[in-house]
Amino acid sequence: MDNDKNKRITVKDVAAALGISPSTVSRALSPEKQHLVSDRVIELVEKKSEEMGYTANPMATALKRGATKTIGMMIPDILNPIFPPLVHEIQQLTNKLGYTLTLAYTENNQELALEEVKRLIARNVDGIILASAFRKDPTVDYCLDHGKPLVQVNRVIDNLASDQVLVDDREGIYQLFEHLYKLGHRHIAHIAGPNEISSGLSRRHAFISIADMFDVSPDHAPVISARAFSELAGKDATKILLKEHPEVTAVIAANDLLALGCIEELEAVGKIIPNDISVTGFNDMPYLDWFRIPLTTVSLPQTQLGDQSVRMLLSQIRKDSDSAFPRKVLLQPRLVVRKSTTTPRK
Amino acid sequence: MDNDKNKRITVKDVAAALGISPSTVSRALSPEKQHLVSDRVIELVEKKSEEMGYTANPMATALKRGATKTIGMMIPDILNPIFPPLVHEIQQLTNKLGYTLTLAYTENNQELALEEVKRLIARNVDGIILASAFRKDPTVDYCLDHGKPLVQVNRVIDNLASDQVLVDDREGIYQLFEHLYKLGHRHIAHIAGPNEISSGLSRRHAFISIADMFDVSPDHAPVISARAFSELAGKDATKILLKEHPEVTAVIAANDLLALGCIEELEAVGKIIPNDISVTGFNDMPYLDWFRIPLTTVSLPQTQLGDQSVRMLLSQIRKDSDSAFPRKVLLQPRLVVRKSTTTPRK
DNA sequence: GTGAAAGCGCTAACAT
DNA sequence: ATGTTAGCGCTTTCAC
């Protein structure tokens, strides 16, 4: 067995083996500079470096060039079933385009988020996809201050300070509300997500305004706030809802996890879903089809979300002309009717 | 607005601002070298670099030191619900220990896997956690040849060539088999995972040997192979099972996804689960509690899996004496009885 | 078309 | 206790 396990083969080694200069090797191996080198030498270099097992050291390249061919993605939490599909999509795409995706997790903690974004930028990522923004968010400012290409997905800050790709929350809530209204519901509650998160706020606003459009008066369309987008928060919000508005026949939860928590609590007090009360979610998390109470919900265009974010980010990185002004893309969700909704009892 | 957005602040800048040398700044900021510097200077440097917004460039450090404080983890696919919990666990732990985790995906494709591991090593990760090994796997060889610290989790190659942390498949199958046997089942089938994956093979072997222990003859304990650990493969395997062994009253699937596919097919031909036929899984994927047919399965000690792998890897990286010989850790799964199993019909 | 030399930002000798 | 120098591996002027 060879004893140079740890010895790295460098351009120098390849150059020496070929009796040429490191610069030539470098050029021969770089697609953008190959044209400066004779075909014969290119071939020689390619064969030799392959043979010697040469792989360029990305650290050195990055240090020299300032670009890393790496993009960073921040998500709150990989355990939240919404994110794996999005990460997958984005990973596939960036990879295909020659970039490496680095994940960072914020745990929905703004301080941690800032630390992590600092780390990403210190590591010289070429750009950042932020799927964890709060409405006021120092991470966004940090990226912008440092001139880092940035796109926000799904959750955004209040002003259009960078590219954003969003799901049309209003349309989603509209579809859900209409679905329930057509079933005959006239007392519909909303379990809202945190106000500090754009999707929480915009779904809440959408709900209020759409209730009005359908001539459902505010006291027949109560809103309860959940403190987080989690099962437990949904359960707790539902306790309050049941106490304060026992008359509601349907609940639009701001996401699937809240809806699950809601169902949990409803069943705990003996309600039958959907007969006693209809419940809807938002996002269409994986495996919902398999659930005991398959949730009626609204599904995200995950592929487009990923696609758009990557494209926008790359156009920023390449400084394409169309990236001169922040852009906002609004993607459409799709109603998925399952078994958690039906006509109101009686 | 300042126009030096892109300008990186370096040790040199901080040193210049303080009228001292870069090395002193470097030392003052490095925990291991601080003791070589006067307390007064340390304080000065810390304040100044904070004030100037200095962050070390990890590329440069890596290039110089040869170590990146980065560890790589390879998983087949982030969409497989087994992996997020494991990734989460490992991520938390490595982060706490000052390491950054980089993920790579193999899509269960050996060639892609090799490419990815090469990339990780080219990027100079300090070690690799491999959760995607095949029984014969060039990725393992590649790591070993390059002297990279490596631990295999959950799926391993045939020989003990590096540290491994495993779930005790035999124990898991035993618990499931015993559970079904006690319920009265005497015709139990196994839907096996691919033979090329260690967990597929070892669960199959476990099944065969345990059937024998319980004096269930081989023709009352048929084994059907699925081509992958997926829902679809489970469905297809079940078609064959139903044709060839209509008499079975219970199925032990090699993992949850296979079990789901199995259930899908059984229901497609009008069977009622668990009354007509009991089905069990393996792994206890998230949200199983919520499922229409909550799966009886065996749950993995995810925390320990993550914990052990990280510890072992770090002990290799630090070249602790206990890492001189490959170690194999066998963790115990736990039976989780839900609603997909009951006494055999009639 | 190719080589020599400098430098990205950092740290580890080797001075002093 | 601190400064000076060199070099990690690469790319890129600038020469020829």
TrEMBL record, chains A, B:
Domain HTH lacI-type: 9-65
Alphabetically ordered keywords of this record: DNA-binding, Transcription, Transcription regulation
Record Gene3D superfamilies: 3.40.50.2300, lambda repressor-like DNA-binding domains
One Pfam family here: LacI
Superkingdom field: Bacteria
Keyword DNA-binding applies: yes
UniProt-recorded name of the protein: LacI family transcriptional regulator
Organism: Enterovibrio gelatinilyticus
